[in-house]
C-alpha cells in the first residue's frame, strides 16, 4: 500500500491561460511549499521553485509572473507591474 501525503493546493491567480498556485506539503516537518504553474491549454504543469512558508512562496510566484519564465518548454512573458490579488480571493483546496 502506498503512503498518502496530505497537501493543500492554493490557487493564486489565472493569467492568459496559466494558473499559478502553491502546494503546501502538510505532513513534512517544515511544511515546504512548491510554487507551480499549470498551462490549461496544453495541460503542462511545471514546478517553478520550492520554499518554506506560504508568504515566501507568494512573493516568489509574484516575481515569476512579473519577470516571466521559460521552464522546460513552458514560456510565460512577464507582466512588470503585476501584484497578486488579495488573500480573500484565493481558493484553497485540501487533497487527501
How far the N terminus sits from the C terminus, by CA atoms, comes to 15 Å
User: How many separate helices?
Assistant: 1
Shape: globular
- Residue stretches low in confidence (pLDDT < 50, at least 5 long) are none
Walk me through this protein's architecture.
- The chain has 96 residues and is mainly beta.
- It has 1 helix and 7 strands.
- It has a 5-stranded antiparallel β-sheet, covered by helices on one side. A two-stranded antiparallel sheet has the order 5-6.
- The longest helix is centred in the middle third of the chain and has 14 residues, at 54-67.
Protein traits:
two-stranded antiparallel ribbon, single chain, mainly beta, about 50% strand, 1 helix
Tell me briefly what this model is.
With 96 residues, the protein is mainly beta. It is 15% helix and 49% strand. The protein is globular, with a radius of gyration of 13 Å.
Q: How is the secondary structure organized here?
A:
Layout: E1 7-15, E2 18-25, E3 32-39, E4 44-52, H1 54-67, E5 68-71, E6 74-77, E7 91-95
Antiparallel strand pairs: 1-2, 1-7, 2-3, 3-4, 5-6
Amino acid at each position: 500500500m502506498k503512503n498518502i501525503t496530505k497537501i493543500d493546493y492554493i490557487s493564486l491567480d489565472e493569467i492568459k491561460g496559466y494558473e499559478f498556485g502553491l502546494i503546501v506539503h502538510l505532513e513534512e516537518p517544515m511544511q515546504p511549499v512548491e510554487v507551480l504553474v499549470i498551462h490549461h491549454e496544453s495541460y503542462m504543469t511545471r514546478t517553478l521553485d520550492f520554499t518554506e512558508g506560504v508568504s515566501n512562496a507568494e512573493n516568489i510566484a509574484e516575481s515569476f509572473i512579473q519577470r516571466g519564465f521559460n521552464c522546460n518548454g513552458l514560456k510565460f512573458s512577464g507582466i512588470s507591474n503585476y501584484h497578486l490579488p488579495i488573500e480573500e480571493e484565493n481558493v484553497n483546496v485540501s487533497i487527501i
